[in-house]
Protein backbone atom coordinates (compact mmCIF):
# COMPACT_ATOMS: atom_id res chain seq x y z
CA UNK A 1 0.00 0.00 0.00
CA UNK A 2 2.85 2.37 0.79
CA UNK A 3 4.48 1.64 -2.55
CA UNK A 4 1.18 2.17 -4.36
CA UNK A 5 0.66 5.49 -2.59
CA UNK A 6 4.17 6.58 -3.53
CA UNK A 7 3.46 5.90 -7.20
CA UNK A 8 0.15 7.75 -7.03
CA UNK A 9 1.93 10.72 -5.50
CA UNK A 10 4.63 10.64 -8.17
CA UNK A 11 1.97 10.83 -10.89
CA UNK A 12 1.44 14.52 -10.07
CA UNK A 13 4.29 17.05 -10.01
CA UNK A 14 5.19 18.77 -6.74
CA UNK A 15 4.29 22.19 -8.18
CA UNK A 16 0.84 21.01 -9.26
CA UNK A 17 0.25 19.38 -5.89
CA UNK A 18 1.19 22.60 -4.06
CA UNK A 19 -1.07 24.64 -6.35
CA UNK A 20 -4.02 22.31 -5.78
CA UNK A 21 -3.51 22.31 -2.00
CA UNK A 22 -3.46 26.10 -1.99
CA UNK A 23 -6.67 26.21 -4.05
CA UNK A 24 -8.48 23.80 -1.72
CA UNK A 25 -7.34 25.79 1.31
CA UNK A 26 -8.68 28.98 -0.27
CA UNK A 27 -12.03 27.30 -0.85
CA UNK A 28 -12.20 26.02 2.75
CA UNK A 29 -11.13 29.38 4.22
CA UNK A 30 -13.98 31.03 2.34
CA UNK A 31 -16.40 28.63 4.00
CA UNK A 32 -16.69 25.80 1.53
CA UNK A 33 -17.10 22.22 2.69
CA UNK A 34 -15.85 18.95 1.25
CA UNK A 35 -17.42 17.18 -0.42
CA UNK A 36 -19.21 20.08 -2.06
CA UNK A 37 -22.22 20.40 -4.33
CA UNK A 38 -23.26 22.49 -7.32
CA UNK A 39 -24.96 25.38 -5.41
CA UNK A 40 -21.95 25.84 -3.12
CA UNK A 41 -19.54 25.77 -6.07
CA UNK A 42 -21.55 28.47 -7.83
CA UNK A 43 -21.64 30.61 -4.66
CA UNK A 44 -17.86 30.26 -4.44
CA UNK A 45 -17.46 31.48 -8.03
CA UNK A 46 -19.79 34.42 -7.45
CA UNK A 47 -17.97 35.39 -4.25
CA UNK A 48 -14.73 35.98 -6.14
CA UNK A 49 -15.97 36.83 -9.65
CA UNK A 50 -15.13 40.53 -9.19
CA UNK A 51 -11.79 40.13 -7.41
CA UNK A 52 -9.96 37.10 -8.87
CA UNK A 53 -8.70 36.63 -12.41
CA UNK A 54 -11.00 34.20 -14.26
CA UNK A 55 -7.95 32.03 -15.01
CA UNK A 56 -7.36 31.75 -11.27
CA UNK A 57 -10.97 30.72 -10.71
CA UNK A 58 -10.68 28.12 -13.47
CA UNK A 59 -7.61 26.68 -11.73
CA UNK A 60 -9.48 26.58 -8.41
CA UNK A 61 -12.29 24.63 -10.08
CA UNK A 62 -9.77 22.16 -11.48
CA UNK A 63 -8.36 21.60 -7.99
CA UNK A 64 -11.87 21.04 -6.58
CA UNK A 65 -12.67 18.65 -9.39
CA UNK A 66 -9.50 16.64 -8.78
CA UNK A 67 -10.20 16.40 -5.05
CA UNK A 68 -13.71 15.03 -5.62
CA UNK A 69 -12.66 12.59 -8.34
CA UNK A 70 -9.76 11.14 -6.34
CA UNK A 71 -11.88 10.87 -3.19
CA UNK A 72 -14.59 9.01 -5.08
CA UNK A 73 -17.28 11.73 -4.84
CA UNK A 74 -19.44 13.21 -7.57
CA UNK A 75 -17.71 16.18 -9.21
CA UNK A 76 -19.77 19.35 -8.49
CA UNK A 77 -17.70 21.41 -10.95
CA UNK A 78 -18.67 19.25 -13.93
CA UNK A 79 -22.25 20.49 -14.26
CA UNK A 80 -23.19 22.62 -17.26
CA UNK A 81 -24.47 25.37 -14.95
CA UNK A 82 -21.11 25.70 -13.17
CA UNK A 83 -19.24 25.71 -16.46
CA UNK A 84 -21.54 28.31 -18.02
CA UNK A 85 -21.15 30.47 -14.92
CA UNK A 86 -17.38 30.40 -15.32
CA UNK A 87 -17.67 31.21 -19.03
CA UNK A 88 -19.88 34.18 -18.18
CA UNK A 89 -17.33 35.44 -15.63
CA UNK A 90 -14.56 35.08 -18.24
CA UNK A 91 -16.52 37.13 -20.78
CA UNK A 92 -17.30 39.88 -18.30
CA UNK A 93 -14.03 40.05 -16.35
CA UNK A 94 -11.49 38.40 -18.66
CA UNK A 95 -8.15 40.19 -19.05
CA UNK A 96 -5.23 39.62 -21.44
CA UNK A 97 -2.60 37.34 -19.97
CA UNK A 98 0.44 39.31 -18.85
CA UNK A 99 3.55 38.17 -20.70
CA UNK A 100 7.17 38.57 -19.73
CA UNK A 101 9.09 40.76 -22.17
CA UNK A 102 11.50 38.86 -24.39
CA UNK A 103 15.13 39.74 -23.69
CA UNK A 104 16.87 40.48 -27.02
CA UNK A 105 20.31 38.94 -27.40
CA UNK A 106 21.75 42.44 -27.85
CA UNK A 107 20.54 43.40 -24.38
CA UNK A 108 21.85 40.15 -22.93
CA UNK A 109 25.24 41.18 -24.31
CA UNK A 110 24.95 44.48 -22.42
CA UNK A 111 24.25 42.56 -19.21
CA UNK A 112 27.15 40.16 -19.83
CA UNK A 113 29.55 42.98 -20.65
CA UNK A 114 28.71 44.70 -17.38
CA UNK A 115 29.13 41.48 -15.39
CA UNK A 116 32.52 40.81 -16.99
CA UNK A 117 33.68 44.27 -15.96
CA UNK A 118 32.60 43.68 -12.35
CA UNK A 119 34.80 40.57 -12.15
CA UNK A 120 33.44 39.42 -8.77
CA UNK A 121 32.52 35.90 -7.70
CA UNK A 122 28.84 36.86 -7.67
CA UNK A 123 29.13 38.40 -11.14
CA UNK A 124 30.78 35.22 -12.45
CA UNK A 125 27.88 33.14 -11.12
CA UNK A 126 25.23 35.46 -12.54
CA UNK A 127 27.01 35.61 -15.89
CA UNK A 128 27.10 31.81 -16.20
CA UNK A 129 23.55 31.41 -14.91
CA UNK A 130 21.95 33.95 -17.25
CA UNK A 131 23.87 32.80 -20.31
CA UNK A 132 23.13 29.14 -19.68
CA UNK A 133 19.48 29.90 -19.02
CA UNK A 134 19.27 31.99 -22.19
CA UNK A 135 21.13 29.88 -24.74
CA UNK A 136 19.87 26.63 -23.23
CA UNK A 137 16.29 27.88 -23.28
CA UNK A 138 15.84 26.64 -19.71
CA UNK A 139 12.97 27.29 -17.32
CA UNK A 140 13.95 28.69 -13.93
CA UNK A 141 13.19 25.36 -12.24
CA UNK A 142 15.50 23.66 -14.72
CA UNK A 143 18.33 26.15 -14.24
CA UNK A 144 18.54 25.52 -10.50
CA UNK A 145 18.21 21.74 -11.04
CA UNK A 146 21.40 21.57 -13.15
CA UNK A 147 24.31 19.65 -11.64
CA UNK A 148 27.94 19.32 -12.60
CA UNK A 149 27.26 15.67 -13.37
CA UNK A 150 24.75 16.71 -16.06
CA UNK A 151 27.39 18.54 -18.11
CA UNK A 152 29.62 16.86 -20.71
CA UNK A 153 32.48 18.98 -22.04
CA UNK A 154 33.02 18.58 -25.77
CA UNK A 155 35.36 20.18 -28.30
CA UNK A 156 32.53 22.26 -29.77
CA UNK A 157 30.95 23.24 -26.43
CA UNK A 158 28.93 21.47 -23.75
CA UNK A 159 26.14 18.90 -23.82
CA UNK A 160 23.74 19.05 -20.88
CA UNK A 161 21.41 16.17 -20.03
CA UNK A 162 18.72 17.15 -17.55
CA UNK A 163 17.21 13.95 -16.05
CA UNK A 164 13.78 15.47 -15.43
CA UNK A 165 11.86 18.66 -16.17
CA UNK A 166 8.37 20.14 -16.39
CA UNK A 167 7.79 18.58 -19.82
CA UNK A 168 9.62 15.37 -18.95
CA UNK A 169 7.99 14.12 -15.77
CA UNK A 170 8.72 10.50 -16.72
CA UNK A 171 12.47 11.06 -16.48
CA UNK A 172 13.39 10.23 -20.07
CA UNK A 173 15.96 13.04 -20.00
CA UNK A 174 16.33 16.18 -22.12
CA UNK A 175 19.66 16.77 -23.84
CA UNK A 176 20.76 20.15 -25.17
CA UNK A 177 23.98 21.19 -26.87
CA UNK A 178 25.36 24.68 -26.24
CA UNK A 179 28.32 25.69 -28.45
CA UNK A 180 31.14 28.14 -27.75
CA UNK A 181 30.37 31.79 -28.52
CA UNK A 182 32.38 34.07 -30.77
CA UNK A 183 31.17 37.46 -29.56
CA UNK A 184 30.57 38.96 -26.09
CA UNK A 185 28.50 35.98 -24.99
CA UNK A 186 30.02 32.55 -24.47
CA UNK A 187 28.00 30.40 -22.05
CA UNK A 188 30.60 27.61 -22.11
CA UNK A 189 33.46 29.87 -21.03
CA UNK A 190 31.22 31.62 -18.49
CA UNK A 191 30.28 28.30 -16.89
CA UNK A 192 33.87 27.08 -16.70
CA UNK A 193 35.00 30.41 -15.20
CA UNK A 194 32.31 30.23 -12.50
CA UNK A 195 32.97 26.60 -11.57
CA UNK A 196 36.71 27.18 -11.27
CA UNK A 197 36.28 30.39 -9.24
CA UNK A 198 33.73 28.76 -6.92
CA UNK A 199 35.71 25.50 -6.71
CA UNK A 200 32.63 23.44 -7.59
CA UNK A 201 33.36 19.98 -8.95
CA UNK A 202 30.13 18.17 -8.07
CA UNK A 203 26.53 18.85 -7.14
CA UNK A 204 24.46 21.92 -8.00
CA UNK A 205 25.87 24.33 -10.58
CA UNK A 206 24.31 27.50 -9.21
CA UNK A 207 24.38 28.25 -5.49
CA UNK A 208 24.18 31.15 -3.08
CA UNK A 209 27.15 33.47 -2.65
CA UNK A 210 27.48 35.47 0.57
CA UNK A 211 28.90 38.99 0.83
CA UNK A 212 32.05 37.34 2.19
CA UNK A 213 32.38 35.36 -1.07
CA UNK A 214 31.39 32.09 0.55
CA UNK A 215 29.69 29.65 -1.83
CA UNK A 216 26.73 27.70 -0.43
CA UNK A 217 26.26 23.96 -0.70
CA UNK A 218 22.65 23.88 -1.94
CA UNK A 219 21.04 25.07 -5.15
CA UNK A 220 19.42 28.47 -5.57
CA UNK A 221 15.64 28.66 -5.21
CA UNK A 222 13.83 28.98 -8.57
CA UNK A 223 12.29 32.33 -7.57
CA UNK A 224 15.77 33.82 -7.16
CA UNK A 225 16.28 33.75 -10.94
CA UNK A 226 13.82 36.64 -11.33
CA UNK A 227 15.71 38.68 -8.75
CA UNK A 228 19.09 37.97 -10.35
CA UNK A 229 17.89 38.93 -13.83
CA UNK A 230 16.21 42.13 -12.61
CA UNK A 231 19.29 43.17 -10.64
CA UNK A 232 21.67 42.51 -13.53
CA UNK A 233 19.38 44.26 -16.03
CA UNK A 234 19.15 47.32 -13.78
CA UNK A 235 22.95 47.51 -13.41
CA UNK A 236 23.28 47.26 -17.20
CA UNK A 237 20.90 50.20 -17.63
CA UNK A 238 17.97 48.40 -19.24
CA UNK A 239 14.98 50.71 -18.85
CA UNK A 240 12.35 47.97 -19.13
CA UNK A 241 13.72 46.00 -16.17
CA UNK A 242 10.30 45.74 -14.39
CA UNK A 243 8.89 43.87 -17.42
CA UNK A 244 11.49 41.10 -17.18
CA UNK A 245 11.18 37.72 -15.50
CA UNK A 246 12.97 34.40 -15.77
CA UNK A 247 10.70 33.55 -18.72
CA UNK A 248 12.27 36.49 -20.59
CA UNK A 249 15.34 34.29 -21.12
CA UNK A 250 13.40 31.58 -22.97
CA UNK A 251 11.31 34.05 -24.93
CA UNK A 252 14.39 36.05 -25.79
CA UNK A 253 16.24 33.00 -27.06
CA UNK A 254 13.31 32.03 -29.29
CA UNK A 255 12.66 35.47 -30.76
CA UNK A 256 16.33 36.37 -31.24
CA UNK A 257 17.13 32.97 -32.76
CA UNK A 258 14.31 33.39 -35.26
CA UNK A 259 15.54 36.86 -36.25
CA UNK A 260 19.01 35.35 -36.72
CA UNK A 261 17.60 32.76 -39.16
CA UNK A 262 17.17 29.66 -36.96
CA UNK A 263 14.70 27.01 -38.13
CA UNK A 264 11.41 26.42 -36.33
CA UNK A 265 12.37 22.87 -35.32
CA UNK A 266 15.74 23.97 -33.95
CA UNK A 267 14.11 26.66 -31.79
CA UNK A 268 11.52 24.20 -30.53
CA UNK A 269 14.17 21.60 -29.67
CA UNK A 270 16.46 24.03 -27.84
CA UNK A 271 13.62 25.40 -25.72
CA UNK A 272 12.17 21.94 -25.06
CA UNK A 273 8.67 23.05 -26.04
CA UNK A 274 6.11 20.32 -26.61
CA UNK A 275 3.60 22.32 -28.63
CA UNK A 276 4.19 23.99 -31.99
CA UNK A 277 1.70 26.70 -31.10
CA UNK A 278 3.89 28.05 -28.30
CA UNK A 279 6.90 28.38 -30.57
CA UNK A 280 4.77 29.83 -33.35
CA UNK A 281 3.63 32.55 -30.97
CA UNK A 282 7.23 33.54 -30.24
CA UNK A 283 8.07 33.56 -33.95
CA UNK A 284 5.11 35.78 -34.73
CA UNK A 285 6.24 38.12 -31.95
CA UNK A 286 9.75 38.23 -33.41
CA UNK A 287 8.49 39.17 -36.88
CA UNK A 288 5.58 41.43 -35.89
CA UNK A 289 7.12 44.42 -37.68
CA UNK A 290 9.13 42.74 -40.44
CA UNK A 291 6.36 40.32 -41.48
CA UNK A 292 3.61 42.89 -41.32
CA UNK A 293 0.86 43.56 -43.88
CA UNK A 294 0.57 47.21 -42.86
CA UNK A 295 4.35 47.52 -43.09
CA UNK A 296 4.29 46.28 -46.67
CA UNK A 297 1.92 49.13 -47.53
CA UNK A 298 3.76 51.77 -45.53
CA UNK A 299 7.17 50.84 -47.00
CA UNK A 300 6.06 50.41 -50.60
CA UNK A 301 7.87 52.39 -53.30
From TrEMBL:
UniProt KW keywords: DNA integration, DNA recombination, DNA-binding
Pfam families: Phage_integrase
Residues passing through the membrane, by range: none
GO MF terms, alphabetically ordered: DNA binding
Single biological process term from Gene Ontology: DNA recombination
Domain Core-binding (CB): 1-72
Keyword DNA-binding (UniProt): yes
Tyr recombinase domain mapped to chain residues: 98-297
InterPro entries: CB (IPR044068), DNA_brk_join_enz (IPR011010), Integrase-like_cat_sf (IPR013762), Integrase_catalytic (IPR002104), Integrase_recombinase_N (IPR010998), Phage_Integrase-like_Recomb (IPR052925)
Protein name, as recorded: Site-specific integrase
Amino acid sequence: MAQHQAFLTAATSDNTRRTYRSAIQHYLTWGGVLPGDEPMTIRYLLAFANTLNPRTLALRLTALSQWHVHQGFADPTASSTVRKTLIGIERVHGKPKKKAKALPVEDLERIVDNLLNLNTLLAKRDNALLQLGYFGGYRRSEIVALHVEHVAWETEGIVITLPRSKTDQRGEGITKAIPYGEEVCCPVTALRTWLEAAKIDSGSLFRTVTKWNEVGSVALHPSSINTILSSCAKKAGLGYMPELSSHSLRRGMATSAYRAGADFKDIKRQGGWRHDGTVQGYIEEAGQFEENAAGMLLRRK
